[in-house]
Write a structure and sequence with these properties.
InterPro entries: GroES-like_sf, MDR_fam. By secondary structure, this protein is of the alpha/beta class. The chain is built from three helices and four strands, in the order βαβαβαβ.
């Protein structure tokens, strides 16, 4: 991370059903880097921006078509894998969007 960088926290479904606070605690070594580099961690709730959703979807779609955005996904093949995909998603075992391909 660059000095003065920003980290966006959005989602983190893996901690929804735990006793961990939101945002979840970070390792002390990571916290020290954040302090030394003056990095900001900001939380966002998507529903707070519902009035801007249409414009955001249009802009993001444009960037996606131009390959300016890189999407990370965890894909499970077959409907029979849906229960395990859900369990793994809730445990934070996925990277990016969890998808079950049928």
């Amino acid at each position: 991370m660059n000095n003065g960088g920003r980290i966006v926290l959005c989602g983190q479904i893996a901690v929804y059903n735990t006793d961990l606070p939101y945002p979840p605690p970070i390792p002390e070594q990571t916290a020290e880097i954040i302090r030394l580099k003056n990095i900001q961690r900001e939380r966002f709730l998507v529903l707070s921006y519902k009035d801007e959703m249409d414009a955001a979807v249009a802009q993001l779609s444009h960037w996606l078509q131009e390959n300016k955005l890189k999407v990370k996904e965890t894909i499970y093949e077959g409907l029979s894998k849906a229960p395990q995909a859900f369990v793994d998603m809730m445990a934070g075992k996925n990277i990016g969007k969890m998808i079950v391909k049928v």
